[in-house]
Every structure is written in C-alpha cells, then in structure tokens.
C-alpha cells in the first residue's frame, strides 16, 4: 500500500474557494480502491477546528513562524486528516487567503511556508508511526515543500508530486523574506525558487518536485505556451516527460440526479422557473434555460456573455446565474435581470441552489478564456444539462462538440466554441438554440451526456500508476 500525504490549503466539506477543495476532498477515497493510503494535511483555520472538535494533538512544533503549533489528528469519513493548528497564522476573521477588506493577508508567505514545512517535517520524521512515501502538493501554497524536504535530508527517500490547479496563482513574495521563511540562499537562483527577483513558491515546487502534474491533458499542453503559461512555460517545458496532465473527476454519488432519463428533468425545470420567476410559457420560454454557476471575472468570459446574451433571449432562451466576483459584472447582470424577464440573477454562492440550477437547467454555460479543468461542465453532463464551453483546458477534454461528424455518429454531449470571442460565443448560442428546436437530437445528446463517465475511477488509477512509478510499489488493479 503506497502511503501518500496530500498537502492542501482547502478541502471539502470543510473549507472551499474553488475546485482544488473538491479534488482534495474526493481523491483520498477514490485512491483507496487502488491500494493508496492517502492522508490529508490542512491548515487549522477556524472553520476546520470548529468542525473537528475532537481532533487530538499528535505532533508539537516550537518556534514556528512566530509562535508554537501542533498537528492534530481528525477524520473526514474514512480519511485521516492532519490539521496544522497554529493560531497565530490561521485563527482570524476573513477568508482563507484574504482579510475582511478583501486584500491578501500580508503574512500569506509565512502562513503557507508553514504548511509546506509541516509537510516536510512529517515526511522526515513520521507521525504516529506513519511516514509518507509521496507528498502530493497542491498549488503554490504547498510549493516550498521540496525545498524544506531537501533541507531536512529526506528528499531522496520521500518523493513529491506538484499539482498545478491554476498557473495564475504563483505565490510570489519579496526576496527580503528568504531568511524569514528559512529558505537556503543558494536556492535563490534561476534554477531554483527565484522568479524575476522574487521568491515564487509555485516555481519552487515545479523545479524541485519529483514529478509535476496539472488537472487536464489539454491544460498541460497549453501551459507550455506563452499564451497560457504566464511566464512559467519555459520552466514547465524543461520538466519534459516529468510533467503530465491528469483530468479531474467529480463525486458521482454526491452529484447524482434524482431522475435517470432526460424526461425526468421537466418537473425540475418547471420548479426552477417558478422559484426564479422566469416565464414558464409564451415566446420568452421557447428556448433553452441556460444556467451559470461561477466566479464573475474576466477570465471566466463574462464580458463575452453579456455581449452575446441578446442572441439567447431573442430566441426565447433564458439565463439563470449564480455567482459573485467583480462588482462591474455583478452590476451588469443585475441590470440585465431588471431589463429582461428571461434573466434571473443571484449574487453569492449557495450549494443547494447551485444543484437546483443544474438539475433544472437545459444547458450550462462556461465561456472561460482559460480553464485548467472545470467541474461545472461535468456536473452538467451528469445531469443532462448540456455544456456550452470554450475550447480550452479541461473543457476541451470533457465535452464532445456537436459538430456534423459527432451528430452523425450520435456521440455529441455539448457545444464547444473557438476562438474565445463574443462573436464565437454568439454563434455557439445560435447553434444551441437550433439544436434545442430538434427534440430528438437534444434528447440524444442528453442521453449521451448522462452516460459519460465523469467520476474519479479512471483518473484515480492514473494517479496510482504515477505514484507506483515514483516509488516502485505496485498497486492492486
């Protein structure tokens, strides 16, 4: 049984800001079937400790970035959870990464260096008689771990996998913090953790880990280009075959529709329209009910959707949106809801309402300029809510475009568009509405979507194979 410690800054159901939390929460259970004993290390935020009141201390750390700390043992279902309880770093108001004013915590470099160092200490010294063979490091928050692992003399014995969930977040901070973070000064070089005169925790992980992965094969290829690599393309390309893309999955038990066939969606669609006050009859209801669940940012393509929206509404389509983000987008979509009977908007996030949107919607829109993997399109597939997505990252890897060949062969599951422009999105919405007006074709696409595997089985096996390659330990097939 391969022993793996997952090192993450967020994990469902305890704390979440994005898809990383879903992956961190689902992967240990999925890997258990492959003989992988994956445990999780998570910062002791207030919400985490409140949800784990019986977590007992099992490891003491003194003089730890401005205070003392303990590692506590809790559980998440069948998964062992180690909680880094350091009140001076994590016991505070605000969100995981930002204060009440919305700005990054000034000591984020220390907060997540602490997470990385704690992981390295567990690897070097063991915990409760358990020593990991692999550290699975998620995003920049765990990126300094390979540096600390070398400093503790355990880098040859314990392997590391650095997984990039979003290259846009690189964990950069001033080089003045080298000593504060306990980093070796020789490592501050172009071949180490130095990045344009700063420390980059993400780069430290990329250059120092045994292997590097990201969350879809297409995103892996994109990251080695100037358009998507955000300055890290050369560093990633230099890793060669040690850099791979492994598609995320979703928890198919949690995201399981109440209906088993496309016909079952009708009552949920009617209920959703009633809940939102959307027309249930007449010209304004003759097109598809499109749903959006997302952060409202330019990266997610919402300027494009605002420009293309009239095309959907003119054909009797409707839009139901749940999300929050840039105030300009929030205001623009609120204004659209005031001006159009076919638009409903809720600002914020509500997991139960998100599920009702997916369950009742005809299509789910994901017009992202880049998307490492994406999960909402997989939720859509699972529920027969056809994804309309840009041709990028994991969206390209999970949706079968309804082009002439796919329709002729009866395999299409959604619509992809490229380039990522308002014109291309407008054309895609026209295609969506045209397909919706062909009930037999639409129903076949729903059947295809609902039958598509979107769980963790295949990807968990790929991770298990990778861990096996790294450690030389065979897993049960």
Briefly, what is this?
The protein has 477 residues and is α/β, with parallel strands linked by helices. It has 18 helices and 18 strands.
Question: Overview of this structure, please?
Answer:
- With 477 residues, this protein is of the alpha/beta class.
- It has two domains: 2-249 and 457-471, Rossmann fold, CATH 3.40.50; 262-453, Glycogen Phosphorylase B (Rossmann fold).
- Helices cover 38% and strands 20% of the residues.
- The chain is built from 18 helices and 18 strands.
- It has helices at 19-32, 46-51, 87-90, 108-125, 145-151, 201-208, 217-223, 233-237, 265-276, 302-314, 327-339, 351-360, 376-383, 393-398, 404-409, 422-436, 439-451, 457-471; strands at residues 2-7, 36-43, 56-61, 69-76, 79-85, 134-138, 159-164, 172-174, 194-195, 198-200, 211-214, 243-245, 289-296, 318-325, 343-347, 363-366, 386-390, 415-417.
- Strands 3-4-5-2-1-6-7-11-12 form a nine-stranded mixed beta sheet, with helices on both faces. A six-stranded parallel beta sheet has the order 15-14-13-16-17-18, sandwiched between helices. A three-stranded antiparallel beta sheet has the order 8-10-9.
- A hairpin with a 2-residue loop joins strand 4 and strand 5 (79-85).
- Helix 10 runs parallel beside helix 16 (422-436).
- It is elongated.
């Amino acid at each position: 049984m391969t022993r793996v410690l997952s090192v993450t800054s967020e994990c469902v159901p305890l704390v979440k800001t994005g898809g990383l939390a879903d992956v961190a929460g689902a992967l240990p259970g999925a890997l258990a079937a492959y003989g992988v004993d994956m445990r999780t290390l998570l910062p002791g935020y207030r919400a985490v400790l409140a949800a784990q009141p019986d977590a007992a201390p099992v490891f003491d750390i003194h003089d730890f970035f401005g205070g003392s700390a303990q590692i506590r043992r809790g559980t998440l279902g069948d998964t062992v959870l180690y909680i880094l309880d350091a009140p001076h770093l994590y016991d505070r108001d605000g969100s995981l990464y930002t204060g009440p004013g919305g700005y990054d915590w000034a000591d984020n470099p220390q907060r997540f260096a602490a997470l990385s160092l704690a992981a390295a200490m567990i690897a070097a010294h063991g915990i409760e008689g358990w020593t990991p063979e692999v550290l699975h490091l998620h995003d920049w928050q765990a990126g300094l771990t390979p540096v600390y692992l070398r400093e503790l003399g355990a880098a040859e014995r314990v392997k590391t996998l650095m997984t990039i969930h979003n290259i846009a977040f690189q964990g950069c901070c001033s080089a003045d913090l080298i000593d504060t973070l306990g980093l070796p000064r020789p490592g501050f070089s172009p071949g180490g953790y130095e990045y344009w005169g700063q420390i980059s925790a993400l780069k430290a992980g990329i250059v120092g880990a045994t292997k590097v992965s990201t969350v879809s094969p297409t995103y892996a290829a994109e990251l080695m280009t100037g358009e998507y690599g955000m300055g890290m393309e050369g560093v990633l390309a230099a890793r060669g075959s040690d850099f791979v893309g492994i598609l995320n999955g979703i928890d198919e038990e949690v995201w399981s529709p109440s209906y088993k066939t496309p016909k079952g969606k009708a009552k949920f669609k009617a209920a959703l329209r009633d809940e939102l006050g959307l027309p249930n009859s007449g010209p304004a209801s003759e097109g598809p009910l499109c749903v959006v669940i997302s952060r409202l940012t330019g990266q997610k393509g919402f300027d494009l959707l605002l420009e293309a929206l009239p095309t959907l509404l003119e054909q009797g389509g409707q839009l139901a949106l749940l999300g929050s983000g840039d105030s300009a987008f929030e205001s623009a979509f609120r204004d659209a809801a005031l001006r159009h009977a076919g638009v409903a908007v809720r600002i914020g996030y509500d997991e139960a309402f998100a599920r009702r949107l997916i369950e009742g919607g005809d299509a789910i829109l994901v017009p992202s300029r880049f998307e490492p993997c994406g999960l909402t399109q997989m939720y859509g597939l699972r529920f027969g809510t056809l994804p309309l997505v840009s041709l990028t990252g994991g969206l390209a890897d999970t949706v079968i475009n309804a082009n002439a060949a796919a329709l002729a062969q009866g395999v299409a599951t959604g619509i992809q568009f490229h380039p990522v422009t308002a014109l291309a999105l407008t054309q895609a919405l026209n295609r969506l509405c045209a397909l919706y007006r062909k009930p037999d074709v639409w129903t076949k696409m729903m059947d295809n979507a609902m039958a598509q595997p979107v769980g963790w089985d295949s990807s968990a096996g790929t991770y298990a194979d990778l861990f096996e390659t790294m450690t030389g330990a065979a897993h049960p097939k």
